[in-house]
Specification:
The structure holds two protein chains of two kinds. In chain A, helix 1 crosses helix 3 and helix 2 packs across helix 3. Chain A is 72% helix and 0% strand. Chain A has six helices and no strands. The relative contact order of chain A is 0.04. The longest helix of chain A has 50 residues. Chain A folds into two domains: 60 residues, no CATH class; 60 residues, no CATH class. Chain A is mainly alpha-helical. Chain B has nine helices and no strands. In chain B, helix 2 crosses helix 4, helix 6 crosses helix 9 and helix 8 packs across helix 9. The longest helix of chain B has 28 residues. The termini of chain B are far apart. Chain B has two domains: 99 residues, RNA polymerase sigma factor, region 2, helix turn helix motif (Rna Polymerase Sigma Factor, Chain: A, Orthogonal Bundle); 61 residues, Orthogonal Bundle (Arc Repressor Mutant, subunit A). Chain B is mostly helical. The chains are: A mainly alpha, B mainly alpha. At the A-B interface, helix 1, helix 3 and helix 4 of A face helix 2, helix 3, helix 6, helix 7 and helix 9 of B.
Chain lengths: 151, 187
């Protein structure tokens, strides 16, 4: 740090930053010792540090420690509908996922079954049309009914 | 009579993820001070601070599965708290701008100052230190709250605010100088 090679602290902003680092314990041991030495010799700088320290102490003494009594209870009360809404959303999402999978599986199974029916319908004399074959429906004409009776 | 050791943060997080609301209550007890200090430091005491504090914990609760422990729980909550505070300041600023951008005498109100709301509500002004802190811009105030009040080091503060460490130090320097000037001998 070139700053510590100077004999006087000249730049005011730089002074302030160095003093802040000193107060907040952010200086190396060497730099700390240099600042200590200068503080001993420079009363104005020391006064500046004291004023800065006073601000720091004032701030820390005013640090809030809580939101006041029953904060947790108020928070949990507000959280309740949030949790319920989240739970409902989770249930909805889960069911949607399950139903979507079941629907896809059902569609694939129906398509496969339809294709199988279609491939085999020419070998049977049960269905009389392509749609009936796809859905695996028996022929529903009056003659077919008579045929069933015969056999 | 022996006391059961208080659960670690990891244990609490595991229990909260399993739906244990009592564990969440314990976590609130443990970190209320951290969140209160950040939020009240940024907003001053009042309904806005309470709301931002509650919102901080609620957001944490809802995003708990995304918390992987890269930072400490304290840092994570502080980050949410500071974001909520900055949002509250923006809302407050918009509200004042919309309705009370100029007071009766035609002078501009200090829109950054939470005290402006208190004056409007006819309340007493906060104590000198709080007042001086709240006269800072939100950016400068956030640095003071995180670095001085919460004790995060310069790098952590920079990371939380998304700025360079050098900017943290220059903002802190300007903020303390301004506060010092405002507090004068009273400090």
């Amino acid at each position: 740090m070139a700053f510590f090679k100077h004999t006087e602290l000249q730049d005011r902003d730089e002074d302030r930053e160095i003093l802040i680092r000193y107060l907040l314990d952010e200086l190396s041991a060497d730099a700390y010792a240099v600042v200590e030495d200068r503080l001993e010799r420079d009363a104005a700088l020391h006064a500046k540090l004291d004023r800065m320290r006073a601000v720091q102490v004032s701030l820390l003494s005013r640090r809030a420690k809580s939101f006041g009594p029953y904060f947790k209870e108020r928070l949990l009360e507000r959280l309740h509908p949030v949790v319920a809404a989240d739970a409902a959303q989770v249930l909805y999402d889960s069911l949607r996922t399950v139903f979507a999978r079941v629907a896809i599986a059902g569609l694939i199974a129906a398509t496969a079954l339809g294709a199988l029916n279609l491939m085999t319908y020419s070998n049977t004399d049960v269905a009389s049309s392509v749609p009936e074959a796809v859905f695996g429906l028996p022929s529903a004409s009056l003659m077919d009914a008579l045929d069933y009776n015969v056999y | 009579m022996s006391h059961a050791p208080s659960p670690t943060d990891e244990e609490l997080l595991r229990r909260i993820r399993e739906g244990d609301r009592k564990a969440f209550g314990t976590l609130v007890d443990r970190y209320e001070e951290v969140v209160a200090s950040t939020v009240i430091g940024m907003l001053g005491r009042g309904p806005d601070a309470e709301d931002a504090g509650q919102e901080t914990f609620i957001r944490f609760y809802r995003s708990i599965d995304r918390f992987r422990g890269e930072s400490s729980l304290k840092t994570y909550l502080t980050r949410i708290a500071i974001n909520q505070s900055l949002k509250a300041i923006s809302r407050r600023r918009r509200w004042i701008e919309r309705f009370f951008s100029r007071d009766a005498s035609g002078e501009e109100m200090d829109l950054e100052d939470p005290g402006a709301m208190q004056v409007f509500e006819g309340r007493e002004r906060d104590e000198l230190v709080q007042s001086a802190l709240h006269r800072l811009s939100p950016e400068h105030r956030a640095v003071v709250v995180l670095r001085v009040l919460e004790g995060y080091d310069t790098n952590e503060t920079a990371k939380m605010l998304g700025i360079r460490p050098g900017t943290v130090m220059s903002r802190l320097s300007r903020a303390l100088a301004r506060m010092q000037a405002e507090l004068g001998e009273a400090a």
